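Appendix B. One record, verbatim.
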Amino acid sequence: EYRSRSLPGDVEVARSLYKAWLLELLEKDDVAFKQPLVSAGTISPPGRVYRRISLSVSGRGTLPQFTQLLVEFYRVDLVHQVRSLRIKPIEDSRLLDVTLGVDALVIDGAPRADKLTLRPRDVGAGPTAEECAAAILARNLFAPANRPPQFDAVATQRVETDKTLTLPLTAKDEDPLDTVAFRLGEDAPAGASVSAKGELRFKTETPGEYRIPVVAFDDGLPSAIARRVVVVNVVKPPPRVVVKPESSAPPPAPKPHFEDGEFAFVSAVTEVNGRRQLWLDLRTAGKTLKLFEGDSFEVERLSGTIHRIHFDSIEVTAAGERRRFSLGENLSQGRPLAPLAESEGL
């Protein structure tokens, strides 16, 4: 039986193969020690029914990583054991500085081989490797007792049936190395979800009061949790009032007015071929209109007609009324005159 569990019969080959296997354990994804190292080791002298190969294994890993290393080590049915163990916690870190002394046997008469025979160990009625690991991780001997997170206060929430409630959950952890994550508690209502970062989302079409259980948990050993219930009142949205505009037609354009002639000035009255002529100076355009009686003109939005030209004033009909302007005035000034029909004979 021992020969079937022995390392290969050539002790040098056995040492090389066993050393490589130990290093492979340290580098597995679920172990992944930092700074992994396996020493060359020593071989006991001949003379007994076995030769002992002693190696030193070292590296840095967390307690779960170290526990997984032991699981992998004792999972295989070889004649080997951990002879010594030194564990030193690294300050301000979850890493442990681990050194193991390991012995493995080459039994006399064991067949020579170029690879290890790695059969699973039969533990019989004893605890499995996983059960042993769970017992180790249930209490971290290398750190103070893990303290649970503490939820920050959450007020009662209110949301309408046609909207989604989005609420960031926050929690503090007094253990500086711990990271807090979130999940839904048991019996959460349909439509509720919580991301690992703590974003609570909830939507339902049914009004009422809902109680959403949420859990904050850390990654300490063992993990500690805190529970909280978020109360949400779901209500129907208020009726929507649609105000129709009285008319979709665009507003009427403003009527022209004499004020639009603010920059048109009565600058001079001359006589051409026996007819009086008005000079209307357009200051903004930089030009002068020369107009006789009866001529029409347009200034900005103001359109009008020269009704009378006197030597010292003019009469203009525009914007539905008649006004008199003296020399030097602009078309926003002047004096209103009686309507044309009443003053025609004057």
